[in-house]
Structure formats: C-alpha cells, structure tokens
Design a protein that fits this description.
2 helices, transmembrane, Immunoglobulin-like, alpha+beta, 2 domains, 6-stranded mixed sheet, 5-stranded mixed sheet, signal, immunoglobulin domain, 249 residues
C-alpha cells in the first residue's frame, strides 16, 4: 500500500467516525474528507506539516497502578484519536465509554496523553495515537500489564498428618498470574530441590496458573517442622508464601 493510499484509508476511517458523531450523511462525509485533504495540503505547502514531538512507548505496568501513554503534536488543532488494538477509544478527548481512561495535557500545546487510572488486564494491548486531519499516526506501543498470582495454597494444609514411615507428597498451586508465577519450596530457610512443575494457560490467553509437587522421603521428615511454598513473578518479586506443619503420628 502506498503512502497516499494509507493516508486516504486513515482519513476515510476518521470521516466515518465524524459522520457517526455528527449525524452527517454519506455526502457530508465526502465534504469532510475533502476539507481534510485541503487542510493537509495547505499545511504542507506552507511548511507547517504536523509531526509528533512525543509518541507512546512500550511500557510495563503492574495491575492496579496508573500509567500514561504520551502523544504530543504541536501546531495541530484537529481531531486526535487513540486506537487500542485497532479500535478507536473515542473522538478527541471524549472517552466517556472508558471511565478509567482520560486524555490529559495542555490541548492548546498539542498534548493528548492517554492516562489509564488503574491498569487492568483488559488494558494489555497495542496503542496508537492518530491525528486525523494531518493523516499521521504514532508508532504502535505495547502496554504490558503484569498480574501477581493469587495467594499460594498447599493442598491439605495448614497441618499435614502423616503416619511414621510414610513418604510426604505436597502440592502447592498459585493461580491467575501474568506472567506465570515461579514456585520454590523451603524449610529451615533453605530451598528444597527436586519438585516438579506444570503450568496451565487460562481461557483469557494471558494469565497462567502453576502447580508444583514435592516428594520427601520418610527418612528426611521431622515431626513438627514447617515447609513453605513461595510464589513470585515480575508483578511481586518479594513473593507470596504459605506453609504447612508436619504432624507425624
């Protein structure tokens, strides 16, 4: 697709949005499109073609925290759209369908930053800022939302009863994390090796659950000792943990 065709397609999309917003018929849409091209040509011939001084960048945010995607286009007074995964969030600064989203910054200075008040997994997407009349678009920016795991759970806890001479099998799971959590087993402040692991991708295609099973031979078990399962991921490096106490009967 040529640059001209790309510009035309972008303007057509903007035109359709304007038609819907203003209630214009198809003929009105053509008039709007003609005005857009006339305005773009005027700016280019006068050496005032609009350009970005700030564009959104790839960012990583932990769920629940705010994040701002930058977009600044000085000397531009037309309509700016924010696009999320190919769909327009609204027209101009009106994002009323998305109560956690705000367009912030000095409009007169060409600032159209997108602020997300409390990032959520549904905000994990690719964003783009577009200036309709100038027929320019920013680079696409990936917003990655990290989600900490649920509190880990050791099956059968908090007290595991065991007959003397029997081996110990423990299973711990940490669910709904992005990325998947890592699990380590500990006792007496030291890591226990030899556990097995399995991960499950959830239906949303983004979060994962992890399950770990630990086997301890009878000769290595002490009555009353505590065994810890700790789950960590990038959203919570310090981790979450739970423990069980062994009761040998």
């Amino acid at each position: 697709m040529s640059a001209f065709q790309a510009d035309l397609l972008l303007l057509l999309l903007g035109c359709l949005l304007l038609s819907h917003e203003l209630g214009l018929p198809g003929r009105g849409c053509c008039l709007v499109l003609g005005f857009m091209y006339k305005e773009k040509y005027r700016r280019m011939t006068e050496g005032q073609a609009s350009s970005f001084t700030q564009q959104p960048q790839d960012q990583v945010v932990i769920a629940g925290q705010p994040v701002t995607l930058l977009c600044a286009i000085p000397e531009y007074n037309g309509i700016v759209l924010w696009i999320k995964d190919g769909l327009a969030l609204g027209v101009g600064r009106d994002l009323s369908s998305y109560p956690r989203y705000l367009v912030v910054g000095d409009h007169l200075s060409g600032q159209h930053h997108l602020k997300i008040l409390r990032a959520d997994l549904q905000d994990d997407a690719v964003y783009e800022c577009q200036a309709i009349q100038a027929a320019i678009r920013s680079r696409p920016a990936r917003l990655t939302v990290l989600v900490p795991p649920d509190d880990p759970v050791i099956l059968g806890g908090p007290i595991i009863s065991l007959r003397a001479g029997d081996p110990l099998n423990l299973t711990c799971h940490a669910d709904n994390a992005k990325p998947a959590a890592s699990i380590i087993w500990m006792r007496r402040g030291e890591v226990i090796n030899g556990a097995t692991y399995s991960k499950t991708l959830l239906r949303d295609g983004k979060r994962e659950s992890i399950m770990s099973t630990l086997f301890i031979a009878p000769s290595d078990i002490e009555n009353g000792e505590s065994i810890v399962c700790r789950a960590t991921n990038k959203a919570i490096p310090s981790g979450k943990e739970t423990s069980v106490t062994i009761d040998i009967q």
